[in-house]
Each structure stands twice: as C-alpha cells, then as structure tokens.
Amino acid sequence: MSFSSRIVRVVTHITDPNLNVSAYYEKTLLIVILGIDAVPRNFRLLEELERGEKGIGDGTVSYGMDDGDDIYMRSWTGTIIGPHNTVHEGRIYQLKLFCDKDYPEKPPSVRFHSRINMTCVNHESGMVEPKKFGLLANWQREYTMEDILTQLKKEMAAPHNRKLVQPPEVCNAVTILFRTYRGMPPKSFFFYHLCMASLLLCTPLLSIYISGMLFN
C-alpha cells in the first residue's frame, strides 16, 4: 500500500459517518504524516482494535486496549471464558498482552493475570512461554491477538490441560455477573467493561444507601 493510499484510508475512517470517530484514527493520521515506518504496525493494530470492539464469535474470547492515550497501542487486556467440559468451565481468565514496536513482525508478550495451571504457562509469573506454545514459537506476521486468545482457549481443552488441578479461584463481582447471565455471553469487550464499570459505580452507592437506612 502506497503512502498516499494509507493517508486516504485514515481520512476515510475519520470522516465515515457510520463509524465512531475516535482519537486513535486522528493520532494515527499524525503518525502517517510524521513517520512512515510506524504506519503498517499502527494500521494493523487499528484493524485489530476494530475487530475486538465488534466482538469475536460467541463472546467467550475478547480483548481491548488498556490506554487510549498510548499512540503506539502497546498494552492490551484479553479475556477468555473457560471451555465447556473442562476444569476451566465457568472460569473467567484475564490476560495482559504487550505489543512492542516490532509487532507484528514479532509476537506480543502474553501473561495470564488470573491464576491458571497450564503446561505452556509459567506457574510463578503467569507468562505464556513461547517455546511451549506453538503459535508464539512459530509466529507469523499474519497472526493476531485474536488468534493467540483463541488458541489458548483450545489449549485449555487439550487432553494435557483439560483435567489439570487448578489454583483456587478468586471469585469477584464480575465473575458472578457472567455466571448469572451465562446463557447470554457478552458480544464484545465493551460489554465486559460496561458491566465492570457499573458494578464499581453502584457498589459504593449501595453501601452509602444501606448505611443511611441503618443509622438514620
């Protein structure tokens, strides 16, 4: 894709009335103008961001950016809902993905924020070890963060992982919410954060209300 074509593509994104205008596209336009080398990487990540916001499959895998002000789009959070008929069923795993400046030529680092017992995950750090995880070991430029999360979910259901004893689960309000509405899985990462934000907002307000009822 030529330099002029890339500029046209960004401008099209920004001016398209059917898309939500965001700072990502404006910042990327600036990157296009100032540094050609940054263009392929950021266009790729913008495409992945759009894909993540629209939702992936049945909603059991999702991801999104951590910091909207980071023009290099490095830090991401992924979520995997454990597959059925495994020890992971009903569990919600959160992961951190870091896309350095050489992404997608090189894979992102992947670390489980939630505790999990898998053959490809370091038990102490939660890092997914590339030598033990084929997708990272044989990384190709065409692979995406969605591919990583989807393959990790498949690994959970693999014979060598599906019955491994897991660490005690730390159950929180978001986990309870997902289990309550298990029949209606979230369609996007946005829904996950909307639920979490609502809980964080409502919990203290509810506490204040109950305290007022008790002591008045």
UniProtKB/TrEMBL annotation:
<keyword id="KW-1133">Transmembrane helix</keyword>
<comment type="subunit">
    <text>Heterodimer with UBC35 or UBC36.</text>
</comment>
<dbReference type="InterPro" id="IPR000608">
    <property type="entry name" value="UBC"/>
</dbReference>
<keyword id="KW-0812">Transmembrane</keyword>
<dbReference type="Pfam" id="PF00179">
    <property type="entry name" value="UQ_con"/>
</dbReference>
<feature type="transmembrane region" description="Helical">
    <location>
        <begin position="189"/>
        <end position="210"/>
    </location>
</feature>
<protein>
    <submittedName>
        <fullName>Ubiquitin-conjugating enzyme E2 variant 1C</fullName>
    </submittedName>
</protein>
<keyword id="KW-0472">Membrane</keyword>
<feature type="domain" description="UBC core">
    <location>
        <begin position="40"/>
        <end position="194"/>
    </location>
</feature>
<dbReference type="InterPro" id="IPR016135">
    <property type="entry name" value="UBQ-conjugating_enzyme/RWD"/>
</dbReference>
